[in-house]
Write a structure and sequence with these properties.
A hairpin with a 6-residue loop joins strand 1 and strand 2. By secondary structure, this protein is mostly beta strands. It has a single domain, classed as Double-stranded beta-helix (4-Layer Sandwich), CATH 3.60.160.10. It contains three helices and 16 strands. It starts with a strand and ends in a 5-residue tail after the last helix. Helices cover about 10% and strands about 50% of the residues. The radius of gyration is 18 Å and the shape is globular. Strands 3, 5, 6, 8, 9, 10, 11, 12, 13, 14, 15 and 16 form a twelve-stranded antiparallel β-sheet that branches. Strands 1-2-7-4 form a four-stranded antiparallel β-sheet, with no helix packed on it.
């Protein structure tokens, strides 16, 4: 399979070229256009129970689309929010995605849902995170541009700006300061990363955009 990403960092779009016999998984509703003769069927990744958990608490669709072409063809996908699309080659090591960040993957990539802790319920990212594994190509997306930060020690990040991180990093969810600071500073909970590894951050947040738009919707 060959792939091409264009439109980054503002409006990323992914095109994949499939050989006969290859299949590709993409988030439901993300297909923009495809070659005539491309086959599409809905598929539950990881079985019904895991897919249902991802839908209810992880922000991901219950089904993904499985695309194939008997003679070889291409399909193009656009995420449901404007921003950057990134690719990662999976070689067995887990990779953590926040809710709604998964976009697409080749058939050998697995998706599992993990509980992020009680404080994650109030973090704005949901109580659960998605752990990708297996082997193949993984594609994920952000809202806004993506900043890649190499952590060697510690890093504190607002939860709304976190897209994904490498499993070599430890993390916990805490408040910025005391109760007063949390309630009135405009900053809620943060993720404290420690260890060595890479964190992917988005330059904009959907929560921030929603709050900015609220006065204009009255």
């Amino acid at each position: 399979m060959e792939y091409h990403i264009e439109g980054n960092p503002d409006y990323g779009q992914l095109t994949v070229s499939l050989s006969p016999g290859e299949s590709f998984l993409a988030e439901a509703g993300s297909m923009a256009y495809m070659s005539e003769g491309t086959k599409l069927k809905s598929r539950l990744v990881g079985g019904f129970l895991k897919a249902l958990i991802r839908k209810i608490v992880g922000g991901e669709s219950l089904f993904v689309g499985e695309y194939s072409h008997p003679e070889g063809g291409a399909a193009t996908f656009s995420p449901n929010r404007p921003g950057t699309i990134l690719q990662r080659t999976m070689t067995g090591e887990p990779f953590i995605l926040t809710a709604g960040s998964f976009m697409a993957a080749t058939d050998g990539v697995t998706l599992n849902t993990r509980f992020g802790g009680l404080k994650a319920l109030f973090s704005g990212e949901g109580a659960f995170i998605v752990e990708a594994g297996g082997n193949g190509e993984l594609f994920f997306n952000s809202y806004g541009a993506i900043i890649e930060k190499e952590v060697d020690g510690a890093l504190v990040v607002d939860t709304g700006h976190v897209v994904a991180w490498e499993s070599s990093l430890d993390y916990n969810v805490t408040s910025v300061g005391g109760v007063k600071s949390t309630l009135f500073s405009g900053e809620g909970l943060v993720l404290n990363f420690s260890g060595t590894g890479k964190v992917y951050l988005q330059t904009r947040t959907l929560g921030g955009m929603a709050r900015w738009l609220t006065p204009f919707s009255r």
